[in-house]
């Protein structure tokens, strides 16, 4: 099977030849090319080269057409702070609550950072065609305000100014759908809809149902391709039914009991996850194999499962040897039918 | 109302909720989760406690229980934040913006390492203020600058909040910088990377790690008693 066939089979809740592996490597391409992270993201061809080299090195099942989240903050007037050993971070929040009433969404074609992403995805699609899924990324309208306003001011807005909150969701929803569709048009096959605030760990599910779920339903309906809602390490068990109702296809799982999540999602959502990227830094081959086996044991039966990390980005500090061991472990332990006749 | 039988210290181990059944702290917890500002003021008025006692015996335990419930997955971070914000508002409105201070002889400072996302620091600030503990707020700061300020201000307990792994790993730089200067300053860390890897705080040379903002009270008590 090609990676695309493997993934399409898995997300159809059937068992492919083996468990698909998504190594969500946004940063390691810089090391492949011997570049600083800032230099790496400065040119789309670097990311293209980096992603293709990592695809060859690890033989995993996706291309991650993601640069860094702060590009969206930049589009709304924010800034990016680069560092040598981790993902670029969003600088001070660019928007104040009182400006929301007159706020205008950015135009994607006027944003150099977003254009670089589209250029990279276009070239990646030319390189791999439909053999390997290319994953684009958007920040959800409900979670983007953490970068737009700052988390505390965002929570203040939810509680103190629901009128402005509704307006912000409208603006962000329109931008999010447009940005997702631009990526799909450029070459992405699917969109990872990052929505960490959908997790009950972050936001009271009552508030999520009032603000986050409606805008997710509307936005995901407007996105012209499949979506994976990713909670970026947040648990999802309390909102699985809500996520299903948004129309999303997959869920990126965080600090959850993976077997319980799989049971809750079975036949409805494909589960993506949930290796701990922070601990992965210190795994030896045995620990890597154990983690892979445990995840497969918990969630792989019947398909509907893609092995990945739990955050949607593997830390820079995870060594290449560990990633190689991880990919080998999936090939060894992830073959269907699973041992013992499961599935 | 007889409060003596409910008296607890401002720091806990185990499940704080077990100690609070029917207490003003439990009433306050309920008022905070329900965002009932009037109830918060009423509980204070009914308590007959001095501001300092109310902080130590009611606000701090209530915030601790809310933190524990968040840790267990029973509440959301939005509950934790709004509870802290209501306590801060209460202290400003009812106590005139001058929270009472407990006898904390060690100088405490609170900082965020290289990040502009300050929710974690604000949550810790709510807990410290709620418990009547004064602290220096360093805001967002780099590792070397942080070491310099600790030396300048004679800080003995440094609280560091981080959001991302690289910032968490920078705590090692702070630890080494303090050690090079021979400064006796204990480090307490918290934030997502430390929650996701319970061994990380030791790896970076911190004395203690907290899974929730309210655990900072327990951590301060442990350091006071010489546990690390």
UniProtKB/TrEMBL annotation, chain A:
The record places domain Uroporphyrinogen decarboxylase (URO-D) at 2-333
Q: Which domain of life is it from?
A: Bacteria
- Check the record and name the Pfam families matching this protein: URO-D (PF01208)
Q: Which InterPro entries match?
A: Methanogen_methyltrans, Uroporphyrinogen_deCOase
Q: Where is the signal peptide?
A: none
Which PANTHER family does the UniProt record give?
METHYLCOBAMIDE:COM METHYLTRANSFERASE MTBA (PTHR47099)
Q: What is this protein called?
A: Uroporphyrinogen decarboxylase family protein
Automatic annotation (TrEMBL), chain B:
Q: Which InterPro entries match?
A: Cbl-bd_cap, Cobalamin-bd
**The organism's place on the tree of life at top rank:** Bacteria
Pfam family for this entry, one:
B12-binding
B12-binding domain location, by residue? 104-228
What is the protein name for this chain? Cobalamin-dependent protein
Q: Where does this protein come from, organism-wise?
A: Geomonas oryzisoli
Species classification = Bacteria, Pseudomonadati, Thermodesulfobacteriota, Desulfuromonadia, Geobacterales
């Amino acid at each position: 099977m090609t990676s695309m066939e493997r993934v399409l089979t898995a997300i159809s809740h059937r068992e492919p030849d083996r468990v698909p592996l998504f190594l969500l490597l946004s940063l390691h391409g810089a090391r492949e090319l011997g570049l600083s992270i800032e230099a790496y993201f400065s040119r789309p061809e670097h990311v293209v080269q980096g992603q293709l080299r990592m695809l060859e090195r690890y033989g995993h099942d996706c291309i991650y057409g993601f640069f860094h989240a702060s590009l969206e903050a930049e589009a709304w007037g924010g800034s990016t702070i680069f560092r040598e050993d981790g993902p670029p971070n969003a600088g001070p929040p660019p928007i104040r609550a009182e400006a929301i009433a007159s706020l205008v969404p950015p135009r994607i074609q006027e944003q150099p950072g977003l254009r670089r992403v589209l250029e990279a995805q276009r070239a990646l699609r030319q390189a791999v065609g439909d053999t390997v899924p290319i994953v684009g990324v958007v920040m959800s309208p409900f979670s983007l305000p953490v970068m737009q306003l700052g988390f505390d001011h965002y929570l203040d807005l939810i509680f103190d100014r629901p009128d402005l909150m509704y307006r912000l969701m409208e603006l962000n929803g329109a931008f999010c759908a447009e940005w997702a569709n631009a990526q799909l048009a450029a070459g992405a096959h699917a969109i990872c809809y990052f929505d960490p605030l959908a997790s009950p760990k972050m936001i009271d599910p009552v508030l999520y149902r009032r603000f986050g779920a409606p805008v997710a339903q509307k936005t995901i309906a407007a996105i012209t391709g499949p979506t994976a809602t990713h909670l970026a390490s947040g648990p999802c068990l309390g909102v699985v039914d809500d996520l299903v109702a948004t129309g999303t296809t997959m869920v990126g799982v965080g600090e959850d009991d993976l077997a319980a999540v799989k049971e809750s999602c079975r036949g409805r959502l494909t589960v993506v996850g949930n290796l701990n990227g922070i601990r992965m830094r210190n795994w030896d081959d045995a620990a890597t194999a154990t983690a892979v086996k445990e995840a497969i044991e918990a969630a792989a039966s019947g398909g509907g499962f893609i092995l990945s990390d739990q955050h949607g980005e593997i830390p820079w500090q995870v060594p290449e040897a560990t990633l190689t061991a991880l990919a080998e472990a999936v090939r060894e332990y992830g073959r269907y039918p699973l041992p013992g006749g499961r599935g | 109302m007889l409060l003596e039988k409910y008296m607890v210290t401002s720091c806990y181990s185990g499940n704080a909720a077990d100690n609070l059944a029917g207490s003003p702290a439990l009433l306050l917890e309920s008022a905070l989760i329900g965002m009932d500002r009037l109830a918060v003021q009423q509980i204070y008025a009914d308590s007959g406690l001095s501001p300092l006692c109310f902080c130590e015996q009611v606000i701090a335990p209530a915030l601790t229980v809310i933190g524990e419930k968040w840790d267990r997955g029973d509440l959301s971070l939005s509950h934790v934040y709004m509870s802290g914000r209501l306590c801060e508002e209460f202290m400003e409105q009812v106590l005139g913006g001058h929270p009472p201070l407990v006898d904390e002889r060690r100088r405490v400072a609170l900082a965020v390492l290289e990040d502009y996302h300050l929710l974690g620091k604000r949550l810790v600030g709510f807990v410290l203020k709620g418990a009547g503990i004064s602290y220096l707020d360093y805001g967002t700061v780099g590792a070397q600058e942080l070491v310099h300020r600790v030396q300048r201000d004679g800080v003995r307990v440094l609280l560091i909040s981080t959001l991302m792994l690289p910032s968490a790993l920078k705590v090692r730089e702070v630890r080494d910088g303090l050690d090079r200067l021979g400064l006796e300053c204990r480090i307490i860390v918290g934030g997502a990377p430390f929650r996701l890897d319970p061994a990380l705080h030791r790896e970076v040379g911190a004395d203690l790690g907290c899974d929730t903002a309210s655990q900072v009270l327990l951590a301060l008590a442990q350091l006071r008693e010489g546990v690390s």
